[in-house]
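Chain X:
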Amino acid sequence: MGLLDFLFSIVKAFCGESSQPEGEKPTGVQRPPQPQEPLSPLPGAWPTPQHDRLRYQDQNQANQQNEHYTSLRAKATQEGDAMAKCFQQSHEAYSRREGALAKELSEKGKKHERTMEALNAEASAWIFRENNSERKPGELDLHGLYVKEAILYSDKAIKEARQRGDPEIRLIVGKGLHSNGQVAKIKPALEDLMKQLNLPVEVDPQNAGVLIVQLA
């Protein structure tokens, strides 16, 4: 062994062997990333028709219990009671041949009637706007409306849907669970309206509280 070999052996002893053993592949080579399967959405991660229906139902209940809305309806009821009282007194005065008093009471009754109608119109406009602010075109939520109001809004919506060329319109009338005696009132009234308009109508098989009206 020469001097150069002797010095090289000393360096290897202090620094360690840096070469790879024969037959062993380098470990520093990176493998390409393996494709991962897409994650499945967790249950409830995406809205479903049932989820939307429950959300709208909750919102409807909140709207019908809103203080502004209930106050308007309560004031309208008071005006209606006052109207009925004035008309009754007017009739009694007329039967006593007190024509001037009868006329005065009749005019008072008409004034209460106009106020009642204005309050109900404001209440119906408010709840209709709140219930339908997020609805898609072709859907009409009629919760919180009186029968006469529901007919007016439905007739207007049908005309607008026809102008858009919609093939159908969905009228959300509810099942009457919150009506007096839990008897639906809006639903049969609208079914009669569709007969008058000669429009086919059927109950949604997925939701008994929805009427589907064919326009085409």
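Chain Y:
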Amino acid sequence: MLVPKMALVISFTKSFVSLFAILVLFTNSIDAQGLVVGFYNYTCPNAESIIRTEMTKIMLEAPSLAGPLLRMHFHDCFVNGCDGSVLLNGTTANPAEKDSIPNLSLRGFGSIDRVKTKLEAACPGIVSCADILAVVARDVVVLSNGPTWDVPTGRRDGNRSVSQDALLNLPPPFVSANQSLNQFFKPRGLNAKDLIVLSGAHTIGTSHCSSFNDRLYNFNNTGATDQDIDKNYVPKLKSKCKQNDQTTLVEMDPGSFKTFDNGYFKQVAKRRSLFFSDDSLRKLGKKSMAYILRQANSNGAEFFKDFGVSMVKMGNLQVLTGSQGEIRKNCALVN
């Protein structure tokens, strides 16, 4: 039996955790209320068309930017909400989110600037940088032969961007899916399905060897290879990534890394995903594994539908609306 004081502590802790979960969900529901599909219909009616036109040009010039630009929206939303703070420049004395270790490999800031320039020419001071990130994320998926979805807009831009915030709020590739779910997703009102579906974004893009080299050469500081990687795949990965390689890029979904499809789930099912966080999705539970196998052996229709739903859900995180924040004239600078 528990002693009375211990029982009281546990009871209080459970109550506090429950209250925190309710507050998170309540906050997210309030955030979502400020966004609507077609927010710029009257103030900048061609906003999404302008974005799509410019992104079409950019993707023709540099199709490899699809993955990084999609990832940029995720990295923005998970750090103090979808407020465009990942775009702000820092200084030597005050490094910003983009200067943080998890964001050093982000690319495509110039593309966002190109889109913003076009929008400012058409509708000065109207379209936020946070909304540009959300719409661009959708458009790069569409332009990579993936699904489309309606993007609620109306976000405003934040004025805080601190390097440490990114370090504390972005799930690293070396944590387990279970840890990522409980530490980073659930507190934001996102569930296991959202984690699996959003991880499916790894069907496009590349990764530096440094993000998974430990799985090849020193898993859990054992000096050995992660036994969960398909043993027939290990030699191929080692031929591309030498020990301590920090610069080489490897396709996350080999053979179709420029096409948004269900190939990611085939890689996970075959134990050929690069990141420990992706591989450990197989151990998240029976329902999660069933979903992965279903997508790996399907035409991708279910995943495509689910991806749009989870992206909208993520895009609602802690948004600034109404008179909060500002509409930046330059996405890298506070007005």
